[in-house]
Amino acid sequence: MPKIKFIADTASDIPDELLLEYDIDMPSVPITIEGKGYFERRSFSVREFYQILSGCAEIPATSRVPAEDYKACYERAFSYGFTDIINVTINAGGSGTNASAHMAKSLFFEEHPGAEGKFNIHIVDSKTYTMAYGYPVVQGAKMAREGKSCGEILDYLYDFFDRCEIYLACYSLDYAKKLQGEGRFTYLGFSSHYGDGDVIRAAIETGAFEACELPYNVYNPVLAEEGAVNLFKLAGEHGMGIINMKAYNGSGTMAIFKQIKGLTKIDYPDMTRFCLSNPYVSTIDAGARSMEEFLSDAEAANQPAMTAQERAELRERARRVSPYLNTICRECMHCLEKFECPQGVNFPKLLGIHGRYLVSSSLGFDTASYKGEYAAAATDSACIACGACLPWCEYHLDIPEMMAKASGELGA
Hints:
- The chain is about 45% helix and about 10% strand.
- By secondary structure, it is an alpha/beta fold.
- It has three domains: about 5-30 and about 65-165, Dihydroxyacetone kinase, domain 1 (Rossmann fold, 3-Layer(aba) Sandwich); about 175-325, TIM Barrel, CATH 3.20.20.100; about 335-410, no CATH class.
- The strands form three sheets. The chain has a four-stranded parallel β-sheet, with helices on one face.
- The two termini are about 50 Å apart.
């Protein structure tokens, strides 16, 4: 039976209690603080490091885990009878630690040629940082305890890292402004969404940001002129540039565009011009999918700005369908970038068909074709309402409940 040892460098931030529970080896990342060398988690605790950091005149520098430290880990695992090592490293694109792990592997087998075929060292580039790779390492160790094979665990890790995205936030805006002052980047900005109005306002009023990216479109201008506070105006008064995202309602109108256009007479160029005619919008994140769409956007952008009366008329037409766009699947497919239904159900496609059915029905359009379209897209697998999909919808839709309703109205 395989005996698997896990290794993860200290940048993975795995807590000490989990290291002990799952016998995970953790070589230390070297850190230089104001000219003096240390080793992470060996020279000081995590809490002590942040206390040191708060008093630093300059940002500490890190370097790669030494190859000899990895080799020592490999030697111990081999001597203790392990058959496999799974060594997950910090992003190889941002650190030489992964290269050190490979160098140590070559040195180990040069000294132990008889270990070839009996002792396997698997080095995995996490392509990410901190607990974004610490977490799957712990999960992999749990899988090993459950008797999963090394191949199964590696498949899980590679799949996880292919789907993983990590977002970094500064511990303090002071550090961000300090890095900006050092020329590490030019402009400091933030991005936020509907429902975060108080947070957006607070961020703007710090005066620390030069730009922000916020959603705004003819179907939902609640963060601007129709909100309790016109946050676009507030940002403009603070001298901030505004990147307008979701100019087309976050892809919410893509699949049902023909039905909506038939009622509202609002075309994509109209939506583009509506956004650009807001005096506080600097540019829009149009998300063009083809050169044709890009040229169409550019042509619309070069037209004269809409008058106040044109904007008001367009908004009034949009109100007729706005309520339906907030409760249906937008078919943005962002969920599928990170998640796959365990039952193999293509729920975005099925919910998209049902969404078009609901809008068409509400607006008095012919809905006869939707049952056939739904049947053609359905598979033998059915939603079991396990809820695994719920964390992956950025609009917080109740997917299992919507699937049950779709099946009831369009299923056989």
